[in-house]
Structure formats: C-alpha cells, structure tokens
Write a structure and sequence with these properties.
Oligomer: single chain
Bound molecules: ligand TNX
Number of strands: 17
Helix content: 25-40%
C-alpha cells in the first residue's frame, strides 16, 4: 500500500537552519560541557550564584547576562499554547525563564518523582545539549533551575499539577507523580518547538512566565490500538505510548485478539499465539507478544502514568483462537486462517464448558501480567450468539473477571447482561440515543465514550484519505473535536461518563507511519475533550494550538496528516531531524 501523504521526515540539513544561529555540532548529552561554553545567557540568580562559590567577577557576569535575558525577545510560545488546554492560565510577560547549561532539575526525594525528573532531563538533553543533572531534595527549590515538588497535597487531585515560571526558576507542584508527569508534558510544550530535535540546536530555551493550574475533566482518557488485524511490534507500541503521554492520556487499550490474529502468548494454551498469531489481514505473517514483551509494554506505559487495558474479544471475533484449537470451534474442527475484514461470523460456544476453561485460563494469565485494574472482554458483533445465550455468556465471563479481582469493561453490546460491580461499557455507536445502554447505566454501569462518528480514528478524514473506513462517516479534525462527552447520550447523566477513548482499528493500517497519520492530529482533539474543562472548548483556539503541535511533530520526525482545517505554518522554522527520533531512542533505551 502506498503511504499516505505525510510530512515525511527530511534528512537533517544543518545549513537549512537559515533563520537560526549556527547549529551546535558534536554536542548532545554526552558532550554537554562543550555545549555549555556556547550558552548565551544564564538565568542563575546572583543570590544562588554566591552559594555555589563564584567570584565577584563571575557574579557580575551572571547579573549582566540576567539583564540581557530580561531585555531579550519574549518567549516564542505563549503560556496558554498547550494541548490539551489547561484549566487556568495566568501569564506574566515579565517572568520568562531561560534555561541554560547550568540548569539543574531538583526533585522531591521519592522514587516515582525522581523517575519523572529523569524523564524530563531525557526529553530536554538532546536538543539543548545541556547536562541537566537531576538531584533530589526534601523540599526542592527551583534555585535557578527546575523543581519538581511532590507535595502529597490532595488539592490538585490524582493527576493535577501547578506550574510556576519566574525569572528565578520553574516549579511544578503536584500531589502525585502522575501530576508531575503531566506538568512535565506542559513544560515541554512551552519550550521552543526545536526542543523536539534529536540533536543539539542553538536556541534560546525560554519558557513563558506565569502560572498554570491544571487538572483533568475525566479520570479515563484513552486510546485503543488494534494489534490483531495487523500486528505491530513492541517498538511501535512504545512510540504510540509516547504520543499518548504527550497529550496527558492515561489509558492504552490493546485489542489483542480478533478473527485475523491472536497476539498474546498464553502458557496454558500455547498454540493461541504460535498458530493463532501467525496471520493478519491480507495474509501477512502476523506475530504475537511474548509475555516478556507484554510486560515491557505495561512497564513502559506505567512509567508514563498510563494503564494498559488488555482486551480479549469474546464470544465473537474469535476465529484466530479456533484455528489454534479446533476443540473450541462449535463444530469441533479447526478452520483455516482468515485474512479478510468481515466481522460477526465467528464465536466460541457458550454452551460448552471447555469454553469457560479457556476463558478462565486466558483471563487468569492476562490478569497476572497486568497490574492495572481492568480487563476488557469485548462483546461486540457476536452476531451468532443471541439473546439469553449471549447475556448468559457475558454474565459468566463478568464473574470470571470479578473472581480475578478486576473490573470488567465491554463494548456497549454487553449492556443487556446483568450488572456486575463497577462494570464499564464502552459506547461506540453513532446515534447518541441508545435506551439499552441508558438502562444499563441506570442499573449501575459507567461509560467510556468512543462514538464511532467522532472518536473512531480508523475513519477517513476526507473522501480522498488513502486508508481507513467510512462506515461511521468521515471524521475531520473538527468532527473529532466538536462534541461534548457529558451531553452526548440521551438519558445518560453526565456523572455516568468516566471519560473518552479514541480507538484505532487497523484493517487498513499497516505501518507505524500510517498509525501516526491516523492519530495525528485527531488524537489530541479527543485528549482535549478528556482533559480540558468545557469552558475552554473553542474550535478556533484549538486549531491554532494544534498548528503549533505540527511544528513539534515535524521536529521529532513524527508523521501526521496536514489537515486543511489547521493553519499549519508553511515552513518548519527549525531543522528537521532524521527519522529515528528521540522518542524512538527512548523506546530503545527502555527495551535495553
Ligand atoms: C467495528 S467497533 C468493530 C471492529 C471493526 C471496526 C472498524 C467494534 C467494537 N467493532 O471490529 O474493526 O468496526 O471500524
């Protein structure tokens, strides 16, 4: 398949940085001392310079540089230019802060906070070339640098943070490490876009002054990747996790099984992966995750405060399992692999006890591999299992999940089944009106909203989009953005909605570049619906802020769709790195 038209990363041309001072060469995190010598200005305040044992001459020099910084041009990014839009933004034009080669990251003495500090340093080192040492302290003060202060304070909630930028330093305050992590994503977006470069760039690393107080509207903000229709390796999944983290999403739903492939190794039923995994749409070789691979994905996500929700789709969408174990097939005979894209023809037999042995073993192993609290049991499009046979099956599987100490999630088709404690339904309809789902909510279910006509990122943007579906309509960026989760479904109260999720089905998506093309720029739209208070909702403001993200994606070598609805700058104003970006590097180092 030909690749969609994208911002194909161009080779880095150092001479191409026409509107920038000379690009530093030979720098990078390991060569930071050399880079430090070329740093234009220091924002280290004189009071702290004294404590570091500087001479009077050095102090005078520092003061001079500080004065120069104050006269310097303002930060290129405005404090509110963040996606998702923060809850409260209070700019202070006189309070910009300049990072420099002496900047230190000081972090509360807590392992999770330290990990956030290390991630911040890893994000900033490649482009700045600064050493950015990370140190811990009981009460971290910015002192000319960046402080990540984990207060344990409940005010900002489970994921909120406060960011203060002053000439003297930058402070992120949060009650939890997740809050610090989200604050770091904001800080990253406030720096010049060249911060995304994988190699050092000569730039004034200035942050706009002022304060942000921010916390999410919804606790559940996710994306789904279908690794069953086409298989994507661990490195691709880690890179998708990076994209989720950037936009403060906190759930990755992995659609691990479907008719075309079974993607997770199950020790008690080994042929599921080795036989059931060796296929995909179009008949390619497919693949599967070993349990070690899967743990690596879970750990990488957890380090970015993202919970993995694994899905085993039942009782339909099970053809791949049947190819591996004929005993599960209703006629007892293993069928050949299926490489097409039809749905609704396969099922495991709800009347057979062997089916429940299979479900118990698979979900048991998956629960043991998955520290997060949720197991997704699918439940969609089981056209051949109807009525009481279907609801009886779902009720039994819900009990199996409860027995594993986990909360069950299913596509909204499971609504007619009896309520199980805490169960979540994932709505993917297109009408906004579903009395059966509304009734399940009255019986206690909560909802995750993935309306097919707004949040399905496998839908085409426009008639000429080279990949994707259109059964739920075309979804341009505005359509992905312009809906309100709280008011979307008739007869469902706002407090029944736990959040939003953007699914990417991959019948026609075959490469990482194609995943990125479909996710960006729509994923940030869904992320903003999940995070930002409704009072910030504004299409014109959103598309302006998205345009700024495009410059960052270009700098990072990330593919995206240049939607005509977004006022992308005509030319990237920064050098474009080679493919193989810092996110990839991060993915590799996480695997090492
Ligand atoms: C419906 S949405 C499906 C998937 C397909 C998708 C394609 C849902 C729960 N089921 O099996 O991949 O449409 O858009």
């Amino acid at each position: 398949m030909s690749s969609p038209s994208t911002t194909a990363p161009e080779p880095l041309d150092p001479s191409g940085a026409v509107d920038l001072p000379a690009v530093q060469t030979g720098g990078g995190p390991d060569n930071a001392t050399a880079a430090a010598d070329t740093t234009p200005a220091s924002a280290t305040p004189a009071g702290h310079a004294g404590t570091s044992g500087r001479t009077a001459g050095e102090l005078a020099g520092a003061a001079e540089r500080q004065a120069a910084a104050l006269l310097a041009p303002p930060a290129p990014v405005r404090l509110g230019d963040v996606v998702p839009a923060p809850e409260r933004v209070t700019p202070d034009a006189d309070a910009d802060h300049l990072l420099d080669a002496d900047t230190v990251i000081r972090v509360s003495a807590d392992p999770a906070a330290l990990a956030v500090g290390e991630q911040l340093a890893a994000l900033l080192r490649p482009a700045t070339g600064y050493p950015l040492p990370v140190t811990d302290a009981a009460a971290p003060a910015p002192a000319g640098g960046i402080a990540l202060d984990l207060t344990g304070d409940a005010d900002l909630g489970a994921e909120g943070y406060r960011l203060d930028v002053t000439p003297a330093g930058v402070r992120i305050t949060a009650g939890t490490a997740a809050g610090l992590h989200h604050g770091v994503q904001t800080l990253r977006q406030l720096l010049p876009a060249a911060i995304e470069s994988a190699t050092p760039v000569a730039e004034r690393w200035v942050l706009p002054g002022g304060s942000i107080v921010d916390r999410p509207r919804y606790p559940h903000r996710g994306a789904m990747l279908d690794v069953a229709r086409h298989f994507f390796g661990v490195a691709d999944v880690l890179r998708v996790i990076d994209h989720l983290a950037r936009y403060k999403l906190n759930r990755l739903h992995l659609h691990l099984t479907d008719d075309q492939g079974w993607r997770i190794a199950v020790d008690s039923w080994p042929r599921l992966a080795t036989v059931g995994g060796a296929n995909e749409v179009g008949g390619g070789p497919g693949g599967h995750y070993t349990q070690a691979d899967y743990r690596r994905i879970v750990a990488y996500a957890a380090a970015r405060h993202i919970t993995v929700i694994p899905e085993i789709d039942l009782p339909g969408h099970t053809h791949a399992a049947l190819t591996a174990y004929g005993e599960l097939a209703p006629d007892g005979v293993a069928p050949p692999p299926y490489a097409g894209t039809e749905v609704g023809f396969s099922y495991v037999d709800p009347a057979s006890e062997r089916t429940y042995d299979f479900v118990t073993d698979v979900l048991g192993e998956l629960a043991a591999l998955t520290p997060g609290g949720w197991l997704h049991i699918g439940g969609d499009e089981a056209f051949k299992v109807k009525g009481a046979a279907y609801t009886g099956f779902v009720e039994r599987v819900q009990q199996i999940v409860a027995g594993l100490g986990r909360t069950v999630i299913g596509w909204h088709q499971i609504a007619p089944a009896a309520h199980a404690d805490g169960r979540l339904l994932q709505w993917w309809g297109t009408s906004g009106d579903d009395p059966v789902t509304a009734d399940a909510v009255r019986r206690g279910a909560k909802l995750i909203l993935s309306p097919g006509n707004h949040a399905y990122l496998d839908m085409k943007y426009a008639p000429d989009t080279p990949i994707g579906h259109d059964w739920a309509g075309l979804i341009d960026v505005r359509r992905a953005y312009d809906w309100d989760p709280a008011a979307h479904l008739t007869d469902v109260p706002a407090d029944a909605v736990l959040g939003v999720e953007a699914p990417l089905w991959t019948e026609s998506v075959t490469t990482l570049a194609e995943i990125e093309f479909m996710l960006l720029p729509r994923l940030p739209a869904i992320a903003e619906l999940g995070w930002s208070p409704r009072s910030t909702h504004d299409w014109d403001g959103f598309r302006e802020r998205l345009a700024g993200q495009g410059v960052r994606w270009t700098a990072a070598g990330i593919t995206f769709h240049r939607s005509p609805e977004v006022p992308w700058p005509a030319q990237p104003s920064i050098p474009t790195p080679r493919p193989g970006t810092q996110d990839r590097a991060a993915a590799r180092s996480a695997q090492a």
